[in-house]
Amino acid sequence: MKVLVLMGGTSFERDVSLSSGEAIVEALRKKGHQVIPVDAAKGKKLLSSSAKFLPDGIKEEPPDFKSLEKMKKELTLKAIESSNLKDTDVVFLALHGGQGEDGTIQALLDMAGKPYTGSGMLASALAMNKDMSKKIFEREGILTPKWLLLESENLTDRAEIEKEIERKLGFPCVVKPNDQGSTVGFSLVEDKKDLMKAFDKAKEFTDTILVEEYIRGRELTVGILSEEPLPVVEIIPEHGVYDYECKYTHGKSRYVCPAELSYEKTKEIQQIGQKAFKALGCQDYARVDFRYSEDEKFFCLEVNSLPGMTATSLVPKAAKEIGIDFPELVDKIVNLALNSKKR
Ligand SMILES: Nc1ncnc2c1ncn2[C@@H]1O[C@H](COP(=O)(O)OP(=O)(O)OP(=O)(O)O)[C@@H](O)[C@H]1O
Ligand SMILES: [Mg+2]
Predict the structure, then answer these.
(1) Positive or negative, the Cα torsion across 264, 266, 267, 269?
(2) Can you give the C-alpha Rg of the chain in angstroms?
(3) pLDDT band per the 50, 70, 90 thresholds, residue 83
(4) Which residues span the domain enclosing 230?
(5) Which of 329, 144, 128 is nearest to 223 (CA)?
(6) Is there a contact between 13 and 48 (Cβ–Cβ < 8 Å)?
(7) In this structure, which residue's CA is closest to atom 22 in ligand 1?
């Protein structure tokens, strides 16, 4: 098949996406497909097929706003209108965050009539918006940490905000962007005196800030492939919080798969994962992130509709556990894309 791999783009997760793209391109080639690698931030221009797309690997921090701002978002349109796309059978979305994961590019590809991997426009938009996702989780009886949504321009009444957080969530609490990934802009706030600093940090990445109840406990994730849950992965990050550095620096996190849970608890979290996936209307594959509290409750944090796809990312790790190696996983995702009508 002829597969166009769309990667990079202008989100804060650009580097992570180039790294997923690199791995996906290699895997597709191994499976005998013809591959066209395209950086969504560069329009029609193809990425050179021999070179590594991210020669120095993922850094400790996401790319800075200034370097991303210089890139032109409109060029993505050019990539989608170009003849490269017209000749391809399917688009593999190796994008993470921003317009690649929030339904925008999905809608463009719907209009272009091109099959693409992962979820459709609506599920992508919902999954990228944690506040919207959490409202749906609640409606479906899926436990999620208590939360408040704040507009970054309405943070002036400090006393009032502190009071509301104290009343509804308590401390410690978590402050994070409502619509980003890779833990960018995240703070764990132990005391109300540190709230403003946390808001300032989140504001660098977003206009809408989520404040959440802090769930002490373990970090678990459930990959979903073809609507079915994969084995559970436990993450033990060196920093306590599974932050950007612990996500992408080799050796900064330990992974246990299958996670050490009883049979019953494994089934329970897998069922909740599948329910969250379906509740948002996700398709083909995704990853559902959880906190497992000290009193043994699973709190659903979010669904990633385009989860990391390097060979050592979480979904590939979980797939490997049931005997699906990385090239096979990538191939399966392509086949799912060709056989599912996007909702
Ligand atoms: N309410 C919470 N309680 C405890 N830890 C939390 C909470 N919210 C987030 N975290 C920590 O921060 C990490 C990132 O949070 P979350 O998954 O919500 O954001 P993200 O940036 O969208 O992540 P991803 O890279 O999976 O897209 C979690 O994996 C967890 O370690
Ligand atoms: Mg997450």
Answers:
(1) positive
(2) 19
(3) confident
(4) 128-142+216-323+334-339
(5) 329
(6) no
(7) 181
